[in-house]
């Protein structure tokens, strides 16, 4: 249905996680094309002031916040402004605005496991799903991809690396397998984060402020810390395995500090096809919104003379063990990636709160993985139960590390 609706007039979009970094970039692109897109719903966790401002500007039909107190506050402000916008609260409301019949496109930009149920709801309703929320796919990979196929959803990767690979491959409908179209490897580029070249010893003292100061990208705090530990690249390796039906050994991580090549596909004839651009998430967002067409994103064209050179190096898995942990979790299969993700979310939150050191993030994830038995990940209930169990274990491990400090 969503594929036909351009002929019908503007496409209707729900933005899950509208107040975040990806959400704001999405609204920026949409506002450039009022004839093509109309907003159905905007959702936020707790940032009610930002959501109020977005409601004023973008006039959605529905706004959703996590808690009823924030929803009540927003309802009052919108009534004062005489704006007829329905305000709702909680996860059932997120699911509803993701699967609503009038919605064509869902931007899945909630951070972390909190995005899984609404993103899956959009998939099951057969929407065009723009996937930024990589944690949802990492947690439930096989089940998620099965539902995409079963329900006829159109899944477009927004993560810049996966969006780049998508652009470097033949169209999905013409693709049987990577080997079937002559692809031998996917080259996943990584900036290396703010601590590229640092030793394990130097990394022990880093602060949340240093970790969140990414050299090339401006992002939410959780993904910024993931970029600093290289867990982000680990999650992306798992994400790429599911999106492109690749085995972990078919994916090579290439550190490329300029973040200009967003990733590449290597073919059996020796060709390596890359997608380049300024590091600005509005490019993959515009691509996902308009695919297979192209629309303006407000991003300046790359100035190659200004960039002058491109560098590449292998990742340092000794100083950054999270990449290895993610690869091992993917190889272990089943619920292991969900456990990795849950332990990482808890550890990153503790690091940002000052309750855990930077090196403690990998320690916590590794100890939770070691204490977990891999189970089949074919049922959502089991995945969610393992997620909850891994969170409890991670909490205990963080508490015992704090006592030892
Ligand atoms: P962010 O922290 O800036 O925004 C997160 C959004 O999710 C906010 O709107 C927040 O209110 C909402 N949210 C958080 N917790 C919630 C909860 N429990 N329930 C409902 N809503 C909740 O994060 P971001 O940087 O925009 O990243 C969003 C997602 O996109 C992440 O999964 C991230 O890995 C992915 N991603 C981001 C970038 C980037 O450049 N920022 C690039 C690639 C992928
Ligand atoms: Mg990325």
Describe this structure in words.
The structure is a single chain. The protein is of the alpha/beta class and 405 residues long. Among the domains are: 153 residues, 3-Layer(aba) Sandwich (Rossmann fold); 73 residues, RNA polymerase sigma factor, region 2, helix turn helix motif (Rna Polymerase Sigma Factor, Chain: A, Orthogonal Bundle), CATH 1.10.1740.10. It is built from 17 helices and eleven strands. Strand 1, helix 1 and strand 2 form a beta-alpha-beta unit. Helix 5 runs parallel beside helix 6 and helix 16 crosses helix 17. The structure holds nicotinamide-adenine-dinucleotide (NAD) and magnesium ion. The site of nicotinamide-adenine-dinucleotide (NAD) has 26 residues, from helix 1, helix 6 and helix 10. The site of nicotinamide-adenine-dinucleotide has 26 residues, from helix 1, helix 6 and helix 10.
How would you state the average pLDDT, rounded? Answer: 96
Catalogue the ligands. nicotinamide-adenine-dinucleotide, magnesium ion
What is the level-2 CATH architecture name of the domain at 6-158? 3-Layer(aba) Sandwich
- Residue stretches low in confidence (pLDDT < 50, at least 5 long) are none
Strands ordered across the widest β-sheet: 4-3-2-1-5-6-7
Characterize the largest beta sheet: strand count, sense, and whether it forms a barrel.
Answer: 7 strands, parallel
């Amino acid at each position: 249905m969503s594929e036909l609706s351009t002929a019908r007039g503007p496409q209707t979009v729900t933005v899950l996680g509208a107040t975040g970094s990806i959400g704001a970039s999405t609204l920026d692109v949409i506002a450039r094309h009022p004839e093509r897109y109309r907003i159905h719903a905007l959702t936020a966790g707790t940032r009610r002031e930002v959501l109020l401002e977005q409601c004023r500007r973008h006039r959605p039909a529905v706004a959703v916040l996590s808690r009823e107190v924030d929803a009540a506050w927003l309802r009052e402000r919108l009534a004062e402004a005489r704006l007829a916008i329905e305000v709702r609260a909680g996860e059932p409301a997120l699911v509803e605005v993701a699967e609503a019949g009038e919605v064509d496109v869902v931007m899945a930009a909630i951070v972390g496991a909190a995005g899984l149920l609404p993103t899956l709801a959009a998939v099951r309703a057969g929407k065009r799903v723009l996937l930024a929320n990589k944690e949802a796919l990492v947690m439930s990979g096989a089940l998620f991809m099965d539902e995409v196929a079963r329900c006829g959803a159109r899944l477009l990767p927004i993560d810049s690396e996966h969006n780049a690979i998508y652009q470097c491959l033949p169209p999905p409908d013409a693709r049987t397998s990577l080997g079937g179209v002559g692809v031998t490897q996917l080259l996943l580029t990584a900036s290396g984060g703010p601590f590229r070249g640092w030793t394990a010893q130097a990394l022990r003292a880093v602060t949340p402020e240093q970790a969140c100061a990414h050299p090339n990208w401006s992002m939410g705090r959780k993904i910024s810390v993931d970029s600093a530990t290289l867990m982000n690249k680990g999650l992306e390796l798992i994400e790429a395995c599911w999106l492109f039906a690749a085995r972990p050994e078919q994916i090579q991580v290439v550190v490329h500090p300029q973040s200009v090549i967003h990733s590449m596909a290597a073919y059996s004839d020796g060709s390596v096809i890359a997608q380049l651009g300024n590091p600005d998430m509005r490019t993959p967002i515009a691509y996902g919104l308009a695919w297979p067409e192209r629309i303006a994103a407000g991003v300046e064209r790359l100035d190659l003379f200004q960039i002058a050179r491109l560098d590449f190096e292998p990742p340092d898995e000794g100083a950054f063990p999270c990449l290895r942990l993610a690869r091992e979790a993917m190889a272990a299969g089943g619920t292991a990636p969900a456990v990795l993700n849950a332990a990482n979310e808890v550890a990153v939150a503790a690091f940002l709160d000052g309750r855990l050191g930077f090196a403690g993030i990998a320690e916590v994830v590794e100890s939770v993985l070691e204490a977990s038995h891999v189970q089949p990940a074919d049922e959502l209930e089991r995945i969610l139960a393992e997620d909850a169990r891994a969170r409890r274990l991670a909490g205990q491990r963080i508490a015992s590390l704090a006592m030892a400090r």
